[in-house]
Amino acid sequence: RGQSEGEVVGRQLAIGVEALRSDDLETAAPAFHEVLAAPPGNELALLGLSEVLERQTDLVAALAMAQRASAAAPESAPALLAVGRLQALLGHSDQALATLEQCRALAPDDVESYQLSSIMLRDLGRRDEAIQLLELALEGGLRQPQLETELAMLLIAADRPGEAQQRAEEGLAKHGETAGLQLALGLAIANDSSADRADAIPYLENALALGVPDPSRVQLELGSILLEANRPAEAVDHLTRAPELMPDSPDVAYKLGVAQRATGDAEAARESLARFQELKAQNEKQERLGLEVGTALNEAQSLATANRLPEALQKVDSILATHPDEARVHTLRAKI
C-alpha cells in the first residue's frame, strides 16, 4: 500500500539515525536529504546532516546546518546545543557561551550545556565563572556525577583542595563509585598541603581500576606519591606502565629512573634517566617551534582583523605547509 508523507519521513529518519549510529555516513546523508525534500526544514533531519558534516570534519557547513535546524525549531534545546557545540569547536567562544546559555534557558536540566560551558570558561581562563556555573547547577538539583567531578577538578586547579575534597566526597556518597569522583578525591588529597599525600593512594588506585580517560597521568601521580612514601617497587610498577600512553613524557622517564635507582636497579635507572635527557631536549625544541607558530598565527590574526583576508589566508597556509597538524591554525583558517 502507499505510504503517507509522515510515514516516509519517519522511515527515512529512522534509517538516517541508525546509519549514524553505525557510522555509515553514505547511507545517513541521502536519508536525511529525502526527509528535507518534503517538507523542508525538518529539525531532526537538519541535525542529522549537521552531524554527518561534522564527522566529515566540515565544521563550517555543520554549523550552518545546525543553525538551520535551530531556525526551523526556535524552541529546540537540542538544536541550540548543536549550534553552541559547533561554535565552540570553531573557536567562536563568546557566541558559543551565549548560545549555550539560551539552551539552558529552554532546558535547565541539560547537563551537556553546563559541562561544555564550564570547560570553555576554564579554557578561556575564566575559572571562577566556571565554578560558579557548576555550583549553580548543583544547587538547582542537577546532581550529575560528571558535573560534580568537573567542579571538584576546577576547585583543585583553583588551589581549593579542601572544598574539592568535600565536593568529591558528597558526590561519591550520592552516586557511589565512579572513576571521575575517585580521581577527584585522590587528587584533592594529593594537592592539600595539610594532608598526608599517601592517603590519596587508594582513591587513585580505585580510579585506575574503574577506568579513567587518561590513566597514564594518574599512574604518574600515583607513582610519584608511592615514591615519596618510600614504596619504590610499587612506584616502578605504575611508572613502567605510564610510558605506554605517554612515551614522550620527560616526567615519566625521570620519575621512573629515580624509582628504579631506589630499588637498586642501577642499569635500568641509567637508561630511564638518559631517556629523560633526550625527551627534555626534544620538548625544548618543540616549545621553540610552538613559539614560532604562535608568532606567525598572531600575524595572521592581525591581518584577518584588518579585513586583509587573502593575505591572512596566505599566511595561514604558509604555517600549515610546515606544521600541518596545528589545530589552532586550522581553526583560524576556518574562521577566515
Helical amount among residues, as a percent range? over 70%
The global form is globular
Round the Cα radius of gyration to an integer and report it: 25 Å
Strand content: under 5%
Number of strands: 0
Brief write-up:
The chain is 78% helix and 0% strand. It is built from 18 helices and no strands. The mean pLDDT is 90.
Element layout with pairings:
Layout: H1 5-21, H2 25-37, H3 43-55, H4 59-72, H5 77-89, H6 93-106, H7 111-123, H8 127-139, H9 145-157, H10 161-175, H11 179-190, H12 201-210, H13 215-228, H14 232-241, H15 250-263, H16 266-305, H17 309-322, H18 327-335
Features:
mainly alpha, single chain, 18 helices
Description:
- By secondary structure, the chain is mainly alpha-helical.
- It is 78% helix and 0% strand.
- It is built from 18 helices and no strands.
- The chain has helices at 5-21, 25-37, 43-55, 59-72, 77-89, 93-106, 111-123, 127-139, 145-157, 161-175, 179-190, 201-210, 215-228, 232-241, 250-263, 266-305, 309-322, 327-335.
- Helix 10 (161-175) runs antiparallel to helix 11 (179-190), helix 14 (232-241) runs antiparallel to helix 15 and helix 16 (266-305) runs antiparallel to helix 17 (309-322).
- The longest helix has 40 residues, at 266-305.
- It starts with a helix and ends with a helix.
- The model has no long low-confidence stretch (mean pLDDT 90).
